[in-house]
Amino acid sequence: MSGAALGLEIVFVFFLALFLLHRYGDFKKQHRLVIVATLLAWYLCFLIVFILPLDVSTTIYNRCKLAVNSSPAESNGSYVTLAPSKQKCFKPWSYIPDGIMPIFWRVVYWTSQFLTWILLPFMQSYARSGGFSITGKIKTALIENAIYYGTYLLIFGAFLIYVAVNPKFNLQWNQLQTIGIAAANTWGLFLLVLLLGYGLVEIPRSHWNGAKRGYLLMKTYFKAAKLMTEKADAEENLEDIMEEVRKVSESIKYNHPLRKCVDTILKKCPTEYQERMGRNMDDYEDFDERQNSYPSEKSLAKLHKQVIYSVQRHRRTQVQWQILLEQAFYLEDVAKNESSATRQFVHTFHSQEPENKIIQYFYTPTVEWYWECLLRPWFYRVLAVVLATFSVIVVWSECTFFSTKPVLSLFAVFIQLAEKTYNYIYIEMACFLTIFFLSICVYSTVFRIRVFNYYYLASHHQTDAYSLLFSGMLFCRLTPPLCLNFLGLTHMDATISHKNTQPTAYTSIMGSMRVLSFIADGFYIYYPMLVVILCIATYFSLGTRCLNLLGFQQFMGDSEMTSDLIDEGKELIRREKRKRQRQEEGENRRREWKERYGNRDDSTRSRAVHTDQKESSFSETNANRPLSKYTRSNGRTERDRIELLQDAEPLDFNADSVNDDPLESDSGR
């Protein structure tokens, strides 16, 4: 069992990262290198979070062995017994042999640092580049990252000069490595506290508000009004860009050297715009003899970049609008079903996606009503209280983890109590819950924040390559200082506990922070206390109020602008609901007509064919009887007229289009 826990967690974390990436990314349309790089970054960061509790339990057992070896002891089977106190040191079920964890942490850490500081920034510029060749994209990416890399070299040079001037230090490779790690962790800790302060308050509050149906419905109306504005802006922007593409396509003919670039741009346009613009392949012009002004390759690359961005934004707003409509219809259904006497959940619209039969069997309308209308609000309230308790413990421990005598950090108290009895399962569970909660607070903020339209993680496969790579960069920069902060909260870091004990394998990879004492004894200890100020600011929504004053509409219950947007969103949802109801009514009428008269139409057609055959044979045998033929011909015409009336279907003037009926094209009537 020594390596089984490590192997299982490695496999589980991989599928977890793959699932999340599949939810936000698009494996079919996005470049494979973008998918692989983002998956690797997310996987390594999640792996650190899940493996660190095993490192803690293994370190506690190793400390016990060192204590046994330094005192008289006797061996007894699978454990070691101290002679004076007769205390047992059991080996944990998830024990990892010596030498594995240092190599594992070294590979994981330096791979993540290579991704976040070198590879992912380069791939970001490469993904956003509008170049038409690999060489052109690489050149653009190098130029854009010159300032980026130069800034890092300047910061590292400042640390290097400080160490070189200080006579207390002798420059060695290990010390240079520690300086680089300290610089990266300082940058990450600065951002970590900002995100943590927001998540510690917003996550419990969002779950508490999740129990308020009226609050969620009003917020959904507010989002609908804002999203409709963004959707209209995206459509207008796409129209403008497509007009520029049309002009370029008409000016640059097929014999122009830059026509390949234009064709590449046209392939990125939506299908309806491609059919509308055409390719102008029949119009030949000798461009060398004409004095027309043609766009340069640089301007075409800029246009290519704009096309990629506008198409992605337009597609994302369309998908988000449909998702928001489903959410609004669902919340309205919940509000209607709360007063239902039958206690069965009734949906206004049927789900467009086929439901699982197993879920349909167990999740009946009655079960759905009890869960959605009765149990779910209380579940969210209880969960919010539990999360708020965790947040209070984290804030208290962040402000007191530097105190070792007495130990004030609650997480350190829990771990030390379990360490006395060597309850490794409790130690691992306590460590996992602690670091998992910290990670949720930080990572969920990364998923929620939006930097205008440049960085935005949208679910349902609507996140662009730039945002995916940027999220990978943030994860790789935030995870190492997050783990160091966790080890400090639990006093497993010797720099915080001031004990001469064996450090964890993760801490040994980071090196001794005593090389930079003002960071180890100052910034790392006192800067996390700012989380209290950030939590207070988040609780009173100071950031939301500032954004609202700057003109960025935010959901605030006491704002007149918020009320106007709620009313606007309610009207938009009502309009879309009426439209969908008319569509479903039209489809139901056509379906009922088909089910009612479909068999009659088939029998009428068979009788008509049989009658035609008899009449044709009768007319051939009686060709010399014109009067009889004339009479039967008139009868046949009358029957055909009756059959056509029977085959005719009523027109649905409430539907959007008459041609929406797929039966018309199949029957050929």
TrEMBL record:
Which branch of life, at top level? Eukaryota
Which residue ranges have biased composition labelled Polar residues? 618-634
Q: Where is the composition biased (Acidic residues)?
A: 658-669
Q: Which UniProt keywords apply?
A: Coiled coil, Membrane, Transmembrane, Transmembrane helix
> What is its membrane topology?
Multi-pass membrane protein
InterPro entries, per the entry: GPCR-associated_LMBR1 (IPR051584), LMBR1-like_membr_prot (IPR006876)
Compartments reported by the entry: Membrane
Annotated region (Disordered), positions in chain: 576-669
**Which intervals of the chain form a coiled coil?**
224-251
Q: Name one GO biological process term.
A: adrenergic receptor signaling pathway
Give any Gene Ontology cellular component.
membrane
Q: Where are the transmembrane segments?
A: 6-21, 33-52, 103-126, 146-165, 177-201, 378-396, 425-446, 466-489, 523-542
Q: Ubl conjugation as a keyword?
A: no
Q: What ranges does the record list as Basic and acidic residues composition bias?
A: 582-617, 635-644
Primary location group: membrane
Provide the family line.
Belongs to the LIMR family.
Name assigned to this protein: LMBD2 protein
From which source organism is this entry?
Answer: Daphoenositta chrysoptera (varied sittella)
Encoding gene (name): Lmbrd2
